[in-house]
Write a structure and sequence with these properties.
The complex is a heterodimer of chains A (about 500) and B (about 525).
Chain A: H1 3-9, H2 11-29, H3 34-56, E1 66-67, E2 72-73, H4 76-95, H5 97-101, H6 109-126, H7 130-148, H8 155-186, H9 191-197, H10 204-220, H11 229-236, H12 239-246, H13 248-264, H14 269-292, H15 297-318, H16 321-347, H17 365-368, H18 370-384, H19 391-404, H20 408-434, H21 453-466, H22 474-490
Antiparallel strand pairs in A: 1-2
Helix pairs in contact in A: 2-3, 2-6, 3-4, 3-6, 4-6, 4-12, 4-13, 4-16, 4-22, 6-7, 6-13, 7-8, 8-10, 8-11, 10-13, 10-14, 11-12, 11-15, 12-16, 13-15, 13-16, 14-15, 14-20, 15-16, 15-19, 15-20, 16-18, 16-19, 16-21, 16-22, 18-20, 18-21, 19-20
Chain B: H1 5-21, H2 25-49, E1 58-63, E2 71-75, H3 77-96, H4 105-124, H5 128-137, H6 139-149, H7 154-183, H8 188-192, H9 198-215, H10 224-231, H11 234-259, H12 261-266, H13 268-287, H14 292-311, H15 316-347, H16 358-361, H17 363-377, H18 383-398, H19 400-425, H20 432-435, H21 442-460, H22 463-480, H23 513-518
Antiparallel strand pairs in B: 1-2
Helix pairs in contact in B: 1-2, 1-4, 2-3, 2-4, 3-4, 3-11, 3-15, 3-21, 3-22, 4-5, 4-6, 4-11, 5-7, 6-7, 7-9, 7-10, 9-11, 10-14, 11-14, 11-15, 13-14, 13-19, 14-15, 14-18, 14-19, 15-17, 15-18, 15-21, 15-22, 17-19, 17-21, 18-19, 18-21
């Protein structure tokens, strides 16, 4: 394979890296140009997305697309994930500026860091070698640590950044240790090589390596029992950053985990399946129970994301092409729901510019801001997985994959536990619709400020996709996801 | 291609419902009324065009819209009757909320119209997953109806309603997925003919039972119903009792019985036992209620117990009777809730003790209330008599003991209903405010009149309602025949007489089936 071909396949990352480096220089010399830099970053992301889409629908590459001598793969699986990641990053950039502007803290470094994170995530999902994986993971993680602490003068933000950094670094170390064991017992770092080396089963040492790698990755996707950092970091980080954490990096980490589990360790599914099943059920239950007592909406959404990861892992536990396709479909739906919910959260601020972050602040929202309340209603029922909203379809495909893989007990326990989760999503609706509005000023005027159109576009699109109209997209979404998932299973 | 009438019936209320969200109160009311009347007209057209004795599935529509499952609609006689019940009750519900609901009218009407779409969808769906989506989706509008426009304890009731019914249903989804994976299709008519292994049937039956028993509701999972009924606004109670409770029975008739005949026979004892407990226990509980709505809610549970027993009698009488009770109860309990609503609108209390002697100042109201009370008891000539008689006759073939206990329930039913009627309508006028209440308005006449007519029609000439369902129930019986239990009544079929006892030569050419059933 020539370098030209490799560069062609890796062009989305190259576009984003070059754009990020240029914009970094721009921001160093023109610190006031944050708006222009944001627009340029969004344009770069759109460019990378268009390139990825052209690769995804190009039959020559959809099934393989190995580049750089087997370090990087631009197959359909990665392509699907990258499009979701780029779209999520764009949506996050759209809803960000007003939040920081209100604190006078928006600087052009922000979109640049987002671009670097996007590059890292692209590499993560395309990695077919442990070394590439680690490089991508660290690039996106380091950018994320800085983003979490982006409000330099805010104690909570700093605390979140530090917590995230220390625990993230610990997890990276665990992954690296696991990788060294896997490398030591297989003699190679490439996924295909590892697969061949462990075709007859894991030795005890290699099994330790696998467990360490999976545990570290479970930390990155915030699966129970490695979820403790999530509520604190999500609550402390600035809200737009939390929106980003809950969407794009989660998609990247889950896809990376799926690829390593199904490709590198794909010959020994029984060896890791029980770990995934445990993490899935524990995440569903702990995520749901933890959310019930929360008053802070960001913390609640953090638990909600833990809960959702549990459902995604059920699809992974199936370890079939249907399961992998279900993971992708769920991720796409989950990312849209999460971005929409956080966009709505960002729109909740009073006239003095303070963000509203608790249940008390949104009581009676349906009378003061009906459009916002109805969008949130759709998103919350969708997150709860109640038909006819589109979130149901995400749960539907993962459970169907589990049933087809004969994991009926897992599916039954998982879906029964999802009822616990419905409880706190209902609380959102109850507070907005059933409770009287407390937040009216003496003259009866609502205190929730108006929102710029960018927020409405993101929220409206996400609510529209989650409404029953989203079902019309099923044939297209399923066929693309199926093709993407089959790419993972044909390359052996 | 013929006119897609079922899709139209789904779309009309949906579009009107979305429009209502943006309309001011007065226009929203009118839009809702017009939309529900249009749907009623479409429903009548559906009934008139239904070919009795024709194909089992009529008005079928199919479109491969969703890849993993089909948009497939179609009805048989059973679904037709339940759709008729839904479209008949909807305009009445809108009328019932005309003055009672004053806040957020547009959203209220939207919730009801979307509810109508979903109810018709449940009965018309021919794809199992499509059925599930409509079945579950109904939770959202009902949750909002109870929670936003309900009584003082509405939040507790709405949560209980939502979580109870959701927990019941989710396991059914897993069972459905397993069945579809096994049979390779999600088409309901095909699955109704598919023979699952008896061992698997046991589990599948239990998974479906968890859902339908909660919806029905059967003792001991009925506790959500009294709370939901008491807290819901009047029209919400009417829909809940009139149509939503029928989803459970429809589920048994459409899924549990034809798809798992062996398992149904295996769990016969369970269904009968729960039904017997329910009919005695809830009747006794109803007897001591002080809240009118709660009393009627418990009476619903008792009536539904006779439905479940009739369904699991494995014979034509039992199933026909169960269907007739479902239709009759839908009308009668809906009407009783409307009667409660009429006086609740005037006095804003459901406390039985606050009323008394209403026959003096509200004679027309007393007349309607009496008619529906008698219908609820099962007086011959009203809808419920036909159903209860047929269902009990069916159960008798299987278990004489069960029949004995279920019939006791009917006596208790007479006790609590008459006791309620005496306390509210007869006696002295204890309270001046209750004595000053005006009689029925024109709007209330328009609500109660049609239901009264339908109740009498169903009681006097049930053939109109039984005819469309006859072939489908007969087909179901054939399907169940291989698992039918022996029964302990040991009925011996004798020689029919040539003529009825009161035969006068030349006066009657032939006796009608309905006449035999009614006497």
């Amino acid at each position: 394979m020539t370098y030209a071909a490799s560069f062609y396949l890796a062009a989305p990352e190259i576009i984003l890296s070059v754009a990020a480096l240029i914009l970094l220089l721009v921001s160093a010399w023109m610190p006031k140009a944050s708006r222009a830099v944001t627009i340029a970053a969004v344009a770069a992301l759109f460019g990378a997305m268009a390139w990825t889409a052209s690769l995804l629908f190009d039959p020559a590459f959809a099934m393989g697309g190995e580049a750089f001598g087997g370090l990087y793969s631009a197959d359909g699986f990665a392509g699907f994930a990258k499009i979701v990641i780029y779209l999520a990053t764009i949506a996050c950039l759209v809803v960000t500026p007003r939040f920081f502007d209100a604190r006078g803290a928006y600087r052009p470094e922000y979109p640049v860091l987002m671009l670097f994170a996007a590059v890292g995530m692209g590499i993560m999902v395309s990695a077919v070698d442990l070394v590439t994986l680690y490089v991508g993971l660290e690039l996106s993680s380091l950018a994320s640590y800085v983003l979490a602490a982006f409000l330099r003068n805010d104690g909570r933000s700093n605390e979140a950044g530090l917590k995230y950094f220390i625990l993230g670094a610990l997890a990276s170390g665990i992954i690296l240790y696991g990788m060294s064991l896997v490398y030591g017992f297989s003699g190679t770092t490439s996924y295909s090589g590892i697969r061949v080396a462990f075709a007859d089963g894991f030795s005890t040492g290699a099994l330790f390596g696998v467990v360490f790698v999976l545990a570290g990755l479970a930390f990155k996707i915030a699966a129970v029992p490695f979820h403790m950092w999530t509520p604190d970091v999500y609550e402390g980080a600035p809200t737009p950053v939390t929106a980003f954490f809950a969407s794009a990096p989660k998609v990247a980490a889950v896809v990376m985990l799926s690829r390593i589990a199904l490709d590198a360790f794909g010959a020994q599914t029984d060896a890791w399946r029980q770990i995934v099943i445990f993490a899935a059920l524990a995440s569903i239950v702990v995520g749901a129970l933890g959310a019930i007592g929360q008053q802070n909406l960001k913390r609640l959404l953090a638990y909600s994301s833990i809960n959702n990861v549990g459902f995604i892992l059920i699809g992974l536990a199936a370890a079939t092409p249907e399961g992998a396709s279900a993971v992708l479909v769920y991720l796409a739906i989950y990312a849209a729901m999460t971005i929409g919910s956080f966009a709505a959260l960002l729109m909740l601020r009073d006239n003095s510019g303070e963000q509203i972050e608790t249940f008390a602040g949104i009581s009676g929202l349906s009378t003061t801001k009906p459009a916002l309340a109805w969008c949130l209603l759709i998103l919350m029922f969708s997150l709860a997985g109640i038909p006819p909203l589109f979130g149901f379809f995400g749960k539907f495909v993962v459970f169907q994959a589990a049933v087809e893989a004969d994991l009926i007990a897992l599916a039954a326990i998982g879906i029964a536990a999802s009822v616990i989760g419905a409880f706190y999503y209902l609380k959102f609706v109850k507070v907005m619709f059933f409770d009287e509005s407390l937040s009216t000023e003496p003259d009866g005027e609502a205190v929730i400020a108006d929102s710029p159109s960018g927020h409405w576009v993101v929220l409206g699109l996400s609510a529209l996709l989650m409404s029953p109209l989203g079902y019309l997209a099923i044939p297209w979404l399923v066929s693309v996801a199926d093709r993407a998932a089959s790419a993972l299973f044909t390359v052996i | 291609m013929e006119f897609p009438i079922l899709s139209t019936m789904l779309i009309v209320p949906l579009v009107a419902g979305i429009a209502c969200l943006f309309l001011p109160a007065a226009t929203a009311r009118l839009t809702a009324l017009v939309a529900t009347l249009v749907n009623l007209a479409l429903g009548i057209a559906l009934w008139l065009n239904y070919d009795i004795g024709g194909a089992q599935w009529q008005f079928t529509e199919r479109a491969d819209l969703f890849a993993v499952f089909d948009y497939a609609l179609g009805i048989d006689g059973i679904a037709l009757m339940l759709i008729m019940l839904s479209v008949f009750l909807m305009p009445i519900c809108i009328l019932a909320s005309w003055d009672g609901i004053q806040k957020r009218v547009g959203e209220y009407m939207a919730a009801f119209l979307i509810m109508e779409t979903l109810m018709i969808g449940v009965f018309a769906a021919q794809d199992m997953f499509l059925f599930y989506i409509f079945f579950e989706a109904g939770l959202i509008p009902m949750y909002l109806i109870i929670g936003v426009w309900g009584g003082d304890n509405r939040i507790y009731a709405s949560y209980k309603f939502f979580l109870y019914t959701l927990l019941g249903s989710v396991v059914m989804l897993i069972a459905m997925m397993w069945m579809v994976n096994q049979a390779g299709t999600s088409d309901i008519p095909t699955l109704m003919q598919y023979d699952f292994a008896p061992g698997a049937q046991t589990w599948l039956w239990l998974a479906f039972f968890a859902s339908f028993a909660v919806k029905m509701p059967m003792w001991p999972v009925h506790t959500w119903l009294p709370d939901a009924h008491v807290q819901a606004p009047t029209a919400g109670s009417v829909i809940l009792a009139g149509v939503l409770l029928k989803l459970g029975g429809y589920g048994f008739i459409r899924f549990s019985l034809p798809m798992f005949p062996e398992a149904s026979a295996q769990f016969l004892w369970l269904v009968f036992a729960l039904s017997m407990v329910a009919v005695i226990y809830t009747s006794l509980v109803a007897l001591v209620q002080h809240d009118m709505k709660k009393l009627i809610a418990y009476s619903s549970v008792a009536h539904m117990a006779i439905v479940t027993a009739g369904l699991f009698a494995f014979n034509v009488q039992g199933i026909e009777g169960a269907m007739m009770i479902m239709l009759g109860h839908g009308l009668v309990s809906g009407a009783l809730f409307l009667c409660v609503g009429v006086i609740y609108d005037r006095l804003h209390t459901r406390e039985i003790g606050r009323y008394g002697g209403l026959a003096i100042n509200m004679p027309r109201y007393a007349f309607f209330f009496l008619l529906f009370t008698m219908a609820s008891i099962g007086l011959p000539g009203t809808s419920n008599f036909v159903g209860e008689f047929l269902a009990l006759a069916g159960v008798y073939e299987v278990s004489t003991w069960a029949t004995l206990i279920l019939t006791t329930g009917i006596i208790l039913g007479a006790a609590y209903m008459l006791y309620l009627y005496r306390r509210v309508v007869f006696g002295i006028q204890k309270n001046a405010d209750a004595a000053a209440m005006p009689d029925l308005s024109l709007r209330e006449w328009a609500m109660l009149g049609p239901i009264a007519a339908a109740v009498l029609w169903m009681g006097v000439y049930p053939e109109s309602f039984l005819a469309p369902m006859r072939a489908d129930i007969a087909a179901l019986e054939v399907r169940l025949a291989r698992a039918a239990p022996a029964g302990d009544s040991g009925l011996a079929i004798g020689q029919p007489r040539d003529h009825a006892a009161n035969y006068v030569a030349g006066a009657h050419a032939e006796g009608s089936v309905a006449a035999e059933g009614a006497h």
